[in-house]
Amino acid sequence: MKKIVTVFLSLLMLSSLVLSGCGKSDDTGSNKNSEGGSQSEKKVKIRIMGYNKEETRRSYLDYLKEKLPNVDIEFQFVDLKSFENMLRTQLAAGEGPDIFETSGSGAVYANAGYVEDLTDASFTSKYNDTGLMRYQSKVYTIPLQSWFEGIWYNKDIFEKYGLTPPKTWDEWMDIHDKLRQEGIKPQAMGAKSWEPMMKQSMGMLLNEFYSKPENKDFDTAFSDGTKAVSGQWNDAVTKWTETIQKGNITKDMLGVDYDQAQDEFATGKAAMWESGPWAAEALKQKNPNLNMGMFPIPGLTAGTGWLIGGPGSAFAVNKQSKHKDVAMQIMELTATQEAQQALIKDNFGSSFLKGVEVELPSEYADSAAAFKEGHVYAPWITWPFGAIAEDYGKALQEVLTGAKKVDEALQVLDNKAEQQRKSLKGN
User: Fold this and answer.
1) Residue 427 reports pLDDT greater than 80
2) What value does the mean pLDDT take over residues 48-58?
3) Where are the extended beta strands (E) located within 122-252?
4) Which of 173, 162, 120 is CA-nearest to residue 142?
């Protein structure tokens, strides 16, 4: 079943951010150089550095190269675990890429004076405000497509054993038990990375903490230091650890990486795997006959569940770029219908550009209600120091090994947040 989903799929409902498509597409402005200028001009080299693989940007890069024939666009992929250190080192040396990928508002780089202020740029107004993350009331980044993650499941395996996508946490735990009894690994997980457990615990938090009206402003309070996660998140995260106690997430998964987990799911060795649309093509390449769908992470009571996601990564312009004018042309071109559709083609999501419509593929039919109700959120992307989600994820890895308790893992997050607040204030 396919549905037309307007641009923003009502993302980030908890922050009262209702996203809707409006307005109409515009061209790339009056700058004639946006088409590459005279053929006699010498080619300018522009480096774009990102932590999403080039295959997820291929159509977009092809579009840029078509529109800017006199610009040599080099895309440099750097794995996320090395990305921050490499980028900061280059920027501190007065170098670095002309355009780089970042998350949220780019607060850390803006605070250090490394990025161009885009608040008054002509292309910024083409985006819906809900997709524009601000730091100290200024815009330093423009959003790419949104992102979301849910639980991919093998429809054929589910059908064979009479299983349906769960509506409650207990139903999901029961599915794990039934699959295990049939000799099938219930869930693949690349827990060598800090991300999967962090995100699945967030699923429980979205259902049991963030969905309560009294907690709708929690992330704002956490960001400014008036509230901590300790004493707030404990019950939900402790409940989530039940999946560890039941043996659904096991210590051996700490030695499994993303690609290995993906392969387990693609080949039918595991019935479920948490990931997003960016994995769909690779899964189909590994197994063209894979019949899969995605369901949201369920909560304790029956409901639509929650997907992890929201405004995805963004592009920022290096303030020290030697070709800032060309970098700004690329940002202008990115704010077009054509560029947005190219981004979505290789990495499905919604767009924050006004007037863009996205068709929801049938694989996501089980998640349609979550989209409709705005049940798509990722708390850390609203924090000015969102990178500390990694510290939380690593602390959960220690919860899995038994080296830390939930309370201690949450204290790690609070401690890191306080360090970052002081750093942003220059203390």
Assistant:
1) no
2) 93
3) 134-135, 138-139, 142-143, 147-154, 185-188
4) 120
In order of 150, 245, 384, the CA distances from 272 in angstroms are 10, 18, 33
- DSSP-based three-state secondary structure for 204: helix
pLDDT of residue 251: 98
**Alpha-helix residue ranges (DSSP H) falling in 246-323:** 258-266, 280-286
Helix axes 337-346, 324-334, angle to 10 degrees: 80
* Mean pLDDT within 187-204: 98
Q: What angle do CA 19, 23, 26 make, to 5 degrees?
A: 120
- The C-alpha atoms of residue 139 and residue 330 are separated, in whole angstroms, by 17
β-sheet bridge partners, residue 315: 101, 142
Displacement of CA 393 from its chain's centroid (Å): 15
Predicted confidence band of residue 130 (pLDDT cuts 50, 70, 90): low
Q: How would you classify the pairing of strands 71-77 and 44-50?
A: parallel
Contacts of 327 (CB under 8 A, 6+ apart): 46, 98, 99, 116, 317, 318, 321
| Packing angle, helices 337-346 and 58-67, rounded to 10 | 150
CB 426 within 8 A of CB 108: no
Residue among 394, 378, 384, 406 at smallest CA distance from 14: 378
Cβ–Cβ < 8 Å for 34, 332: yes
Reported as a single tens digit per residue, the pLDDT across 149-186 is: 999 999 999 999 999 999 999 999 999 999 999 999 99
pLDDT of 105: 66
Assign a CATH topology to domain 22-146+311-355. Answer: D-Maltodextrin-Binding Protein; domain 2 (3.40.190)
Distance of CA 156 to the CA centre of its chain: 28
CB neighbourhood size of 185 (10 A) = 18
pLDDT score of 24 more than 90 = no
Domain spanning 149-308+379-424 has what CATH number?
3.40.190.10
Which residues, 6+ apart, have CB-to-CB distance to 257 below 8 Å? Answer: 190, 192, 193
Backbone angles phi, psi at 29, to 5 degrees: 90, -175
Instruction: State the span(s) of the chain assigned CATH 3.40.190.10.
Output: 22-146+311-355, 149-308+379-424
CB neighbourhood size of 87 (10 A): 21
> CA–CA separation, 197 vs 416, rounded Å?
18
Phi-psi region of 212 (alpha: psi -120 to 50; beta: other; left: phi over 0): beta
